[in-house]
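I have been asked to look over a protein record a colleague put together. This is what I was given:
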Amino acid sequence: MKSLFYSRFFILLPWVLIVIIMIDIDTKRTPVRSPVLGRAGGAQRHDRTRLPRANRSALPVIYAITPTYNRPVQKAELTRLANTFCQVPRFHWIVVEDSSVRTELVASFLSHSGMPYTHLNIFTPRRFKRTGMPRATEQRNTALSWLRSHRSRKDVGVVFFADDDNTYSLELFEEMRPTRGVSVWPVGLVSGRRYERPIVEKGKVVGWYTGWRPDRPFAIDMAGFAVNLQVVLGSPRALFKRRGSQPGMQESDFLKQITKVGDLEPKANNCTRLGAEGLTRGGVPPNPLQEHLVGQSWVALTHYHSWRCPTSAGSSEREMVGAVLMRASFITALDGFCDGKFLKSSGLTDLHVLK
């Protein structure tokens, strides 16, 4: 009798254990939650994942054209840009090397960047590399040719010239994205000034606040404008001039082929917003850089490594490599930083470093 009992017990035992294990797994798989919270949580997850993706697919693509060339800081410069660009939705990075071949350094860097990109190259003849001659002309024109060959009238986008020695805040890209023709905005730390900007009256650009040749047709930095993709495609002969162009005139030479000053689209609250508050001063050009470069600031900072400051040990000057701390919603400029202060000798006495 006992043997019959044990035989049946050992036959049923594995099946009982299997049932217990399955019940335990099923319990862990189904979280316990109240019906109300469960629906709310589900709706929240839906809003955060699916809706933004659907919305992003309808955004115009921003095509950033970046000329670059081999030098010790090249990878550091590209890394800084990539850390910003990878956070911008619907973004396509066109990197053009001044080289006879596409180098392994840039190719490997871009392949690990995690963003859509196009890697091009064209070598600038040495006769065009003399001091005082326009730079990156061939590289920008090569990128424009690529766009005209690989994009059509059905594509929606904005073209922006993002030099690799500049720094950009994330808000700038959302500001330029709805550009219909050519949009413009202020640029900080350029031409020896704390900022430059288009002067706007009644929504129209009427002049330029700049440190160099305000008589230029478009007295603006390369970092200060964006062009609708269809304007680029619809103007196939619009290129950056090599012959007959002067340094600092490339922007004007290009823009006058595709637009007029009166047709420019001022961004940044009629080109008055540069710092955190974007305050204007009645009757005089605003000086927004008296505010911290934080909060909603989206200014494009140019030539950030060109300032000088003395060492703490003496009065001799040394070149300082500027640093810029980027985050998703703020930007802190540390240009010409020495001993915790911006120096009067750099002309940046209105800027403050955040500790």
Notes: The first helix runs from residue 2 to 29. Residues 53-272 form a domain with the Spore Coat Polysaccharide Biosynthesis Protein SpsA; Chain A fold (CATH 3.90.550.10). The chain is about 30% helix and 20% strand. The two ends are 85 Å apart (CA to CA).
